[in-house]
Design a protein that fits this description.
The protein is α+β, with helices and mostly antiparallel strands and 321 residues long. It has ten helices and 18 strands. The chain starts with a strand and ends with a helix.
């Protein structure tokens, strides 16, 4: 029986919405969390000269024939849960074997992917995104990635206006059991004098781009769902994630040239889904900031009534745009 395999964290609510949409349509869905392997899930995969990878995937509730998988929705599953009886070296070894075995067989499945794990891993690098966006003829901010304070000062001297600093990777970290986020911020003249801690790791600096508003563009296959994000507070104007209460949303359209550039970008990155962020200038120009291959979209659907979950279901079921 044709089945859509869903691999995601158990408590991921955007995935819940996609699964509900699929099941409401009558699709057969097999959902699991990679964290279930190996203690709560069993995999037995086989390959030979006559057949590609096949076999079974079994959880405490269900069984799946890998040959039945027609599409896979892959979204930020939890790490493998290993036996607490293992030593730390044993756990590292077992985790590597699980990634190569469980992850390797699933990654080798020939089916529709949203998104393929290998494409996601590559696309998560901001330097890769910016290079791909530039090649796709999308406008990108002047950018520097460095751990050199002198390079930052030289970069700032080449920029006629302010510059901003933001994380190169995920802005979220845990400290003392508290979830913290590092937001984008504009640097002051005093910041450029101090620059303490720059040499400790890589930092990303960009020229500030004047904005009328920002756009969250959710791309699913050939479908594009664009929402303007208008910030009414100063901190949200710098980084809208810092003050959600000040935001207002509005459906909008994507200019033809931007849509063509986004299609080229998605093809270059090998993605069928991404959440893209753009700045729209007071004169209407669009500047690409980033493309998150595992971005949040449920709150945008809720705020704007854009049918994003339906688009995911269409993509997984192979329904033409």
């Amino acid at each position: 029986m044709a089945t859509i395999l869903v691999i995601a964290a158990r408590d991921d609510w955007p995935t819940d919405r996609v699964v509900k949409t699929l099941t409401d349509r009558g699709a057969t869905v097999f959902r699991m969390d990679a964290g279930d392997f190996p203690q709560e899930a069993t995999l037995a995969g086989r390959i030979d000269n006559a057949h590609s990878w096949g076999g079974g995937l079994t959880t405490s509730h269900r069984e799946l024939d890998l040959a039945d998988v027609e599409a896979c929705y892959f979204r930020a599953p939890n790490p493998f849960r290993l036996s607490a009886d293992m030593s730390e070296p044993e756990r590292r070894f077992a985790a590597a074997q699980a990634r190569a075995g469980f992850g390797g067989i699933l990654t080798a499945l020939d089916c529709r992917w949203v998104n393929h794990p290998l494409a996601m891993s590559r696309a998560e690098y901001k330097p890769v995104q910016l290079a791909a966006a530039r090649e796709a003829a999308l406008s990108v901010p002047r950018t520097l990635i460095t751990n050199s304070p002198d390079a930052v000062r030289a970069f700032a001297g080449d920029i006629p206006g302010p510059i901003i600093c933001k994380p190169v990777a995920s802005p979220v970290f845990i400290e003392g059991d508290e979830l913290k986020t590092v937001y984008t911020r504009r640097l002051t003249k005093q910041d450029l004098v101090d620059l303490q801690g720059i040499n400790t790791t890589a930092h990303l600096f960009q020229a500030w781009v004047d904005k009328a508003h920002e756009v969250r563009l959710t791309v699913v296959g050939e479908r594009m769902f664009a929402a303007e994000i208008h910030a009414s507070s100063l901190k949200a104007h710098d980084d809208w994630r810092s003050d959600y209460k000040s935001l207002k949303y509005k459906q909008t359209t994507v200019p033809w040239d931007i849509a063509e550039g986004v299609r080229r970008l998605m093809k270059n990155l090998g993605l069928s889904f991404a959440a893209l962020d753009f700045i729209v200038s007071p004169t209407g120009g669009w500047t690409f900031l980033e493309a998150n291959p595992c971005g949040q979209w449920d709150w945008i659907e809720h705020a704007t009534d854009l049918p994003i979950a339906e688009a995911f279901a269409d993509e997984l079921q192979g329904v033409p745009a």
